[in-house]
Structure formats: structure tokens, C-alpha cells
Design goal:
Strand content: 15-25%
Order of helices and strands: EEEHEEHEHHHHHEHEHEEHHEEH
Number of helices: 12
CATH topology of the domain at 21-246: Rossmann fold
Largest sheet: 8 strands, mixed
Structural class: alpha/beta
CATH architecture of the domain at 21-246: 3-Layer(aba) Sandwich
Strand order of the largest sheet: 6-7-8-3-9-10-12-11
Helix content: 25-40%
């Protein structure tokens, strides 16, 4: 285990420090029978060592596509990386061959997938699956890898790890399977961990345990984490910065405290207002009318304009770009809410 480093609650690093991961104008298109459709367009962000970036948004906003694109896990016959850079310590992953990417996956970048039951091989024992990256990347012998696999299961809070090594995924609970995925993802002590909805299918108690585990791993290993979730409560508790996604693009990026206290984009504001609150009396829960547009039926101008209660005529004519409106704060909106607060 690496040296313990205690991160700040809002671990925002100055521009003079080179980021561990720099994503620049990443665009991915899907190939369909009806033509090429936009998956994500010009997504950019920096992530430093020990930081947690939360990617939030509704289903279909482009969160998981972004994560899969970073690891180049979308098959070439399904989608293509049309432009952009994915710089990991200065190395552009977008230009690497598949053979080179296999050396990156699992060793430098680990991923916790959303559904452990479909991510784990039902025909392989837990021990064999946790040991696999150790044998592939670190060239451990089978005996040494199995010993380390037991240590990893113990690290992620699985009781009686030696017995669990011989079991199969269907013999474990949902929370335990999620812990197995985490153990596999951190086996080679990666510098970056991508967690795609790691708590979605779990009960509240197990969710808290998984988040505590991720926080402990972050503190002890100084691993950078991209947390993909639709649960804003999880983001408020765990992330340092937030990038809000909508229809395949980033619409807001800022430190987590600013996003929750002073949202700049109407979509972010709508997401926050849709959360049930116990400190306010309300007969009806507020919601954002409509749905995220399909890539095959994108509206003209701002993709959010048909659902936006702040929309003006020019919003449906011109596409806004993500623009810095204050230090460490960017928004893709012609009329950000922060300006309205300043005027009032």
C-alpha cells in the first residue's frame, strides 16, 4: 500500500501543477444504420492526483460514454473517437494501439462497473478474477497472486476472504460483489479509478459502506477518482469538483460547494431543485419537464432550451460553449444564473 496522504475536502489544485489526466475536446460518434450520431462532443476536464471529479446528469447525458471512451472500451465498429485527446501523464491514450491499451487498463486505470453481476464472470471463482490483473500486469505466480487476492478482499472489507476466494459470484450478496469489483480494480494500485454508478443497486447502508471504502482508498493510495452518478447526495459527500453533463456535452464545471450553493446553469439548478428536502415544506416535488433529447433528434441551438424555463429566442438558434465565467468555474449558457443573482 502506498504512503498515506490526506487530501483536502475540496482538493482544488492550482494550474501550475500538471494534472494526472487531461481530457481535451473529446468527441465520440456512434455508427448506426441511419448514419453517424453524436455520443459526446468536446468534453474537457483536468483531474489531479488524489482528486475526485463527479460526473452527473440524467440517463443519456453521456456520463458512461465518457468513461468508456477514456479506457477505449467502446468497440470500433460501434463508435469512433472522432477528435480530442486523453492525456494520462502526457501520454495520449487516444493514439495508442489496442495492445498498448491493454497494458494501461487495470494497471494505470482501474474501473468499477455499474452492475457487478454482469461484470463478473459467473464461471470463474472470485479468487481467479481478482488474481487475473495481478498475473497479467505484475507477472505474479498463481500462488502469489491468490495470496494477494485474499489480502485485497480483506482490504475491501470482505470477511473470511480465504473462503470467498473459492466461491462464485452468485454465492455473494450484491454489496460483496461490488467489493470484489473494487478489489479487482485496485489490485495493481492504479493512479486513476473510474467508478460508474458504484452504489446504484445497493441499499442505503451498503451504499454508505462502499463510499467509506472509496474514501479510505483515496486517502491511503492518493488515487484520483472519476465518480459517475445521478445521485447528487453522493456527489456532495464525496467529490471535489463536479462536471454536469447534458445531451453529450458538459454544461457546467465547478467546485462542488459552488455547484450546490450557487448553480450557474438552469439544468444544474433544476437537478438540485428536484431533490426532496426535509427542511422545506412543499406539497409537490419540482421536476424538469421533458426528457434528454435523442442523439438522432437534437434540437437546434442549446440542447436544453426546449426544457429550460429561462430560455430566450437566441437560445434555440446558437449552441453555447463551455466558457469560464469565474476562476475554476465554467458554464455553457448565454444567461447563467450567477449573473442574475449579481444583478438582483
Amino acid at each position: 500500500m502506498k504512503t498515506h496522504v490526506e487530501p483536502n475536502r475540496y482538493n482544488i489544485v492550482g494550474p501550475e501543477v500538471a494534472p494526472l489526466l487531461r481530457v481535451k475536446d473529446l468527441s465520440v460518434n456512434f455508427k448506426t444504420k441511419s448514419g453517424v450520431l453524436r455520443g459526446i462532443e468536446k468534453v474537457s476536464f483536468d483531474l489531479h492526483k488524489g482528486q475526485v471529479l463527479g460526473l452527473v446528469g440524467e440517463s443519456g447525458s453521456g456520463k458512461s460514454v465518457t468513461a468508456l471512451s477514456l479506457l477505449r472500451l467502446i468497440p470500433n465498429d460501434v463508435a469512433e473517437l472522432s477528435s480530442g485527446q486523453i492525456l494520462l501523464d502526457g501520454v495520449d491514450l487516444a493514439r495508442l494501439t489496442e495492445r498498448q491499451m491493454r497494458q494501461i487498463r487495470g494497471r494505470d486505470i482501474g474501473m468499477i462497473f455499474q452492475d457487478p453481476m454482469t461484470s463478473l464472470n459467473p464461471l470463474m471463482t472470485i479468487g481467479a478474477q481478482v488474481a487475473e490483473p495481478l498475473r497479467f500486469h505484475l507477472r505474479m505466480s498463481q500462488r502469489t497472486a491468490m495470496t494477494r487476492a485474499g489480502e485485497l478482499l480483506d482490504l475491501v472489507g470482505i470477511r473470511d476472504p480465504i473462503r470467498r476466494l473459492m466461491q462464485y459470484p452468485h454465492e455473494l450478496s450484491g454489496g460483496m460483489r461490488q467489493r470484489v469489483l473494487i478489489a479487482t480494480a485496485i489490485a495493481c494500485e492504479p493512479r486513476l479509478l473510474i467508478a460508474d454508478e458504484p452504489t446504484t443497486a445497493l441499499d442505503v447502508t451498503t451504499q454508505a459502506q462502499i463510499l467509506d471504502l472509496l474514501q479510505r482508498l483515496r486517502n491511503e493510495m492518493s488515487v484520483a477518482i472519476i465518480l459517475i452518478t445521478h445521485d447528487l447526495g453522493v456527489v456532495a459527500e464525496f467529490a471535489d469538483e463536479v462536471q454536469v453533463m447534458y445531451a453529450g456535452s458538459a454544461v457546467e464545471r465547478a467546485p462542488v460547494d459552488l455547484v450546490f450553493s450557487q448553480p450557474a446553469h438552469p439544468y444544474t439548478d433544476g437537478l438540485l431543485k428536484s431533490i426532496p428536502r426535509f427542511d422545506a415544506d412543499s406539497e409537490r416535488l419540482k421536476s424538469i419537464e421533458g426528457t434528454v433529447p435523442s442523439p438522432s433528434a437534437m434540437p437546434p441551438g442549446c440542447p436544453f432550451s426546449p426544457r429550460c424555463n429561462q430560455s430566450r429566442p437566441d437560445c434555440s438558434q446558437i449552441v453555447p460553449t463551455l466558457t469560464e465565467i469565474a476562476p475554476q468555474r465554467s458554464v455553457a449558457c448565454f444567461y447563467p444564473l450567477t449573473e442574475k443573482r449579481a444583478l438582483s
